[in-house]
Design a protein that fits this description.
The protein is an alpha+beta fold. The chain folds into two domains: about 1-85, no CATH class; about 105-340, 2-Layer Sandwich (BirA Bifunctional Protein, domain 2), CATH 3.30.930.10. Helix content is about 35%, strand content about 20%. The protein contains eleven helices and nine strands. The strands form two sheets. It has a seven-stranded mixed β-sheet, with helices on both faces. β6 and β7 (about 250-260) form a beta hairpin. α1 runs parallel beside α4 (about 50-80), α2 packs antiparallel against α4 (about 50-80) and α5 crosses α10 (about 310-315).
Amino acid sequence: MEQLVNQITALKEEITAWNGGDAETFRIKYLGTKGLVKTIMGEMKNVAAENKKEAGQLLNEFKLFTEAKFEDLKAAAHDSPPATHDAIDLTLPGDNLPLGSRHPISLVKNRIISIFQRLGFAVAEGPEIEDDFHNFSALNLPENHPARDMQDTFYISQNPDWLLRTHTSSVQVREMQKGKLPIRIICPGRVYRNETISARAHCFFHQVEGLYIAENVSFADLKQTLYFFVQEMFGATVKVRFRPSYFPFTEPSAEMDISCLICGGSGCNVCKHTGWVEILGCGMVHPNVLDNCGIDSNKYTGFAFGMGIERITMLKYQIKDLRLFSENDLRFLKQFTSAV
């Protein structure tokens, strides 16, 4: 019994002078499953029978004493100010969060849509996986037509009649088939062609195509529409020219160039020292296309145009490598934060 009393007295002195760490360290040492309180409680079996009552009271009082010390340590830790390196000054401004931005392709696409919406064009969209009819046949490109070789196509191996669309003209076909005239739409979206990836070409890119069908639509309407677009997108000082071309779905057809924005028309590598850069193809909708879509070509006429968004973006921001758009390099993309 005397030995037990001496042990408890020594432990009380140790606990009273405790400076061995935080409250959790104290709990583990004294009140844990292998702590000293549980260990000394085990001494009860060595106490003589006539002293067990007194020993029990003594041990219980020691346990309560230890638990009280633990509670005091917890309260002190809660009330004490945090250490200097963990201090939080609530008067300081918050941390700066990195500012995101839209992708340059999205910026230019939205700008193009905004310009044509001011002219009354609505936005139309369609599937990226198309059938042969909507992508080729309806556009005056029947099977074995040589113009199909102009577009290297990704076909779906399980069903050769299905493919990844090569242009958003398929959306125009779907809108014409609805038979709701007049039609004035633009069709933005991603398209796919089996091309070797380089600074000027990629296996996928983005297009915006336009279509206007009504009575008495002329080539003059097409030219004035595109003049307005170029001035709104690139400024009033940019020069424009039209060159005769061939597209199976328009007749007559033309390609539209603008004066090079990088060299100002004096000639550089981008414009191949011509001073001009092609930005889109256009023309009057071929009568066969109207007939294929159930529209009376004797009553209605229309014009169509199509442009690559990447080409417009490269000219607007003077970007010389097409691959930058899909590499997700933040050093490149963060340059457009202020352009939102």
